[in-house]
Amino acid sequence: KKLDSLLNALFDVQIHANKHSFVGAQCVYVILFNDQIFKFGKAKMDNWNKKKDLPERTVRQINNYRKQFPLLEVEGFVIYRNSQISTEDIEAKETSYIQDYVNKQPKNLCPEARLPEGNQGHKNKIDFKQ
């Protein structure tokens, strides 16, 4: 982290947002299918769609889902914003929203059924015993 900060300060080097040491404006969003949570996600806020009030990345995902599932109502909302947060911390925030969702699901369901459909890749980050 110190090296990234030093390089950024000395040479105006941009640290790629996927690196855990990136610090900047980022958010957590949720995508709903017919008012049901489909997925939580995170995005940088530097490419913002003002008309939709969402990150452009989220708008693209929503548009793709609408094409794939034309009979469903697909919406997205930002649920957390921070102007100076590391990628590591925004990932932790996203995971906390997923964990809260899982904790509210019936305990008799298998782990995959307790996760939002769009967050199946987060199985190893979630505590299903809570």
What would the keywords be for this entry?
130 residues, three-stranded antiparallel sheet, two-stranded antiparallel ribbon, 4 helices
Could you explain how this protein is built, in words?
It is a single chain. The two termini are 33 Å apart. The protein is built from four helices and five strands. The model is unreliable at 11-15 (pLDDT under 50). With 130 residues, the protein is an alpha+beta fold. A three-stranded antiparallel sheet has the order 2-1-5, sandwiched between helices. Strands 3-4 form a two-stranded antiparallel ribbon.
Secondary structure layout plus pairing:
Elements: H1 2-11, E1 23-33, E2 36-44, E3 48-49, E4 54-55, H2 56-68, E5 74-86, H3 87-103, H4 111-114
Q: In percent, how helical is the residue content?
A: 25-40%
Distance between the termini: 33 Å
Strand content: 25-35%
Order of helices and strands: HEEEEHEHH
What best-fitting shape do the alpha-carbon axes yield?
flat
Oligomer designation: single chain
Classification by helices and strands: alpha+beta
Summarize the biggest pleated sheet. 3 strands, antiparallel
**Could you give the order of strands across the largest sheet?**
2-1-5
Q: Uncertain spans, ≥5 residues at pLDDT below 50? A: 11-15
Tally the beta strands.
5
Radius of gyration (CA) equals: 17 Å
Mean pLDDT: 88
The helix tally amounts to 4
